[in-house]
Amino acid sequence: MEERTSVNNPQIKAISKLEKKKYREETGYYLIEGFHLVEEALKSHVKYREILATEKALAQLSSLPFDLDDDKLIKISDNVAKHLSSTKNSQDVFMTVKMQQPGQFTFTYGKWVLLDDLADPGNVGTIIRTADAAGFDGVILSPQTVDLYNPKVQRSMQGSQFHISLIKQDLADAIGQLQNADIPVYASMLDQNAKQLNDFAPVPQLGLIIGNEAHGVSTDIAALADEKLYIPIKGQAESLNAAVAAGIMIYHFS
Predict the structure, then answer these.
(1) Helix 121-133 vs helix 242-252: angle between axes, to the nearest 10 degrees?
(2) CATH number of the domain that 141 lies in?
(3) Does pTM top 0.70 for this prediction?
(4) RNA 2-O ribose methyltransferase substrate binding domain location, by residue (predicted)?
(5) Residue 246 CB burial class (10 angstroms; 0-12, 13-18, ≥19)
(6) Residue 52 shares a structural domain with residue 175
(7) Would you say residue 104 lies in a domain?
(8) What is the per-residue pLDDT across 104-136, written as a single tens digit (0 to 9) for each?
(9) Is 125 among the domain residues?
(10) What residues make up the domain containing 87?
(11) pLDDT digit string, tens, across residues 56-69
(12) Position 26 in a domain
């Protein structure tokens, strides 16, 4: 097991750069933080490059039921852990994980959430976690949706990225594939032709489009949907948070 005590160590400097999308794309790796995420990654047998942990964190890590490769373990100082952390209260354990984005994906079955240019990382992570909890097969992210490997998205997903398919793809192409497989696609939006959510019975397969927090589902994407639906507002709030609305609809169709 190697040890790193300086934030100026070349390896530590390179890992700290993974906070930025540019370096994640260049290296093909991203950084996760915390025992829960590291444990979920190990359970799912994901490909990783190294695990970094303080002496105290290593002791806790050794209690997990996994045979860890000593060559991939790096002991770090508290100062290095603080430098790598993206949170105020770090758990002092990190893992560099291989990005797993298929070049092509064919949608032939299942229940899918489609994210149309969502900008808030907390919303994206929460929707993915909710889709996982409800037994959906995966989430399709438009190219302009916030980066899946953003640290805030990672924290919000809480390991769900290791449980379901997460695909970045042009939504028009994905919608076409779903419909060609006889999977109906519904768009969540306020529209004069939209129907109330409760008018829809749960279906065995579907695609559910969630729109951008400020602008909703784009006109071009909405035009491709088989149906438009909305959640009635019974109080005086103008609208629901995107992740909350998505959660209500996901569980309605689960």
Answers:
(1) 10
(2) 3.40.1280.10
(3) yes
(4) 31-103
(5) buried
(6) no
(7) no
(8) 788 889 999 999 999 999 999 999 999 999 999
(9) yes
(10) 2-98
(11) 999 998 888 888 88
(12) yes
